[in-house]
Amino acid sequence: MKKIFVVILCLLFIVFNSKAKTIKKDVVIYGGTSTAVTAAIQISRMNKSVVIVCPEKHIGGMTTGGLGNTDVGNPKTIGGIAYEFYQRINQWYSSPEHWKYQTYQDFVKSADKKRIAKDALYVFEPHVAELLFEKMIKESNVNVIRGERLDLKNGVKKNGEKIISIKMESGLVFKAKVFIDCTYEGDLMAKSGVDYTVGRESNSEYGEKLNGVQNKEPGRIGKRPLDPFIIPGDSTSGLIDGLQPRCIGKQGEGDKMVQAYNYRLCLTNVPENRVPFDKPKGYNKKEYELLFRWLEAGNTKGLPFGTSPMPNKKTDTNKAGWVSTDYIGKVDSYPDADYVEREKIINAHICYTKGFLWTLANDPRVPKSIRERTSEWGYAKDEFKDNGNFPYQLYVREARRMKGEMIMTENELHRRPAVTDPIALGSYGIDAHPTQLWVDKKGVLHADTPKWTGVGIYGISYRAITPKASQCTNLLVPVCLSATHSALGSMRMEPVYMMLGQSAGAAAALSVKNHCTVQNLSYDKLKKQLIESGQILYKKDIRK
Fold this sequence. Notes:
Blueprint: H1 2-20, E1 22-30, H2 34-45, E2 50-54, H3 80-93, H4 104-110, H5 126-139, E3 143-146, E4 156-159, E5 162-167, E6 173-181, H6 187-191, E7 196-197, H7 203-206, E8 267-268, E9 274-275, H8 289-296, E10 308-310, E11 314-316, H9 339-362, H10 368-375, E12 378-380, E13 401-402, H11 410-413, E14 422-426, E15 437-439, E16 445-447, E17 458-461, E18 475-476, H12 485-491, H13 494-514, H14 523-532
Parallel strand pairs: 1-2, 1-6, 2-3, 6-18
Antiparallel strand pairs: 4-5, 5-6, 7-13, 8-12, 9-12, 10-11, 14-17, 15-16
Helix pairs in contact: 2-13, 3-5, 3-13, 9-10, 13-14
């Protein structure tokens, strides 16, 4: 009798425990990016239940991860919840109490005026962006479950073309009528059986000009030719790390190379808030031989890292030139990698970045003037305080790209033709970072990268965030959307991702309400909802 009682208790525990591990909502959002935030808020405002399943501890992705010098393109095209966010940024900095190390007036003198509007501000400190996102989520009663990663082997359960549930590595299960993949990597999309691609299409595939291998960008040389050989002057000794003897691939040819990632750093030159650059564990001086040679060739006029001004005498530090914080040629395997391999790539980026800055500030091979100017800077003590003042988010500029109901190409960006079902506007130029570096016989450095190319204002199709109906009928993908490599080079900017997130949220809520697949949702209904929610869909409607 006692054994039977124990068995019954065990069965009851199993049943209870399995129920406790299943969460049901109208919509489940996987990913904690800024896209996820706007999607969730929109869904909540439409009175549908929603949860954000965030693999990380912190929300906001790159918007809270150091990219405070927002790539706005034409700021008048930014609408909806994204615009609300930038208005809140402006409201925050309108208060004198939020200026500790300088005044607003002093900041404006050095800031990019394009990013400062009457009622919106597109430059901000990382911790302020996170604070405001958290506040907006709380106001919308959105639940965020953090530290939960999708089970990459058995994490997606489908019935035909419909996702029934997704399971995390912890065993936690989420059920919903519609799912939204808001990750930079597109894991949920990929594991749901949806077609996608990685790398660059050939120019000929979609009639483009800036896709595939790009070896026509003019080379760069300092006061002297760059010596690329392991033993200086000895061509038989081989090339130093980071260089190829020639470009791999032909102009416009497709490949599987992925543009460089980096960290957008928040630095400061205020002594009381500055943390000196530290030498990372695992530091390898050979990683910086190209940097040494570049400096020795006379490229010492400016620092090899950016210092775009942020409030309170901080920076959004991006790469500056080809020998900088971009870790070129190191991420081709990242999009399809498992968590273990991605962690190795992430740690390699952290080590490289920290080592790069430490080298510039300390190594005697670096000219004294560069060392002194670099040492004026350090990590901001009041940012990323639980991560050693280093950003949480690797800048995954591009990973997987869905092959959905339609594929956005350079042609749509130039309105040849214009899309008929816009859900947001884009306006930032086509921007891709190098995939490889090589040096010619004259000591000139070359990069496989296209010249930044303007595009004007264009619409982004709803069909670009929907998978093919034959593959998945209740999934939306606003980050790893259906676009070519070159087209994504314009659309991958955080304000656009935020607007696409809101539109995906509206589409998800309407699909739930109308009991339809995301592909069969009436665009007229979606358009009406988006306009009511403050989205800007046409050039004629942008703010004056």
